[in-house]
Request: fold
Amino acid sequence: MVNKWIQRVKPKKGVLSKQLGIPERKNIPMILLNKIISAKAGQTIRNPTKLGKRRIKVTRLLERRSILARNLKNIR
Reply:
């Protein structure tokens, strides 16, 4: 039996893009996702790309959404 874990997660479409200030139709750069994941919750990071907000405050929820987005990008 196939384990369908993504159906249980129920990701909210466009929430991460809205939180980062990036339009939904554009891809979120992997550099930005990795920087958010490597930062600790409570820190403010500078966006290394030209998309979205310049400064981003990292929260635990933002970090978890970024981890999920990175994992879903790697699925083939």
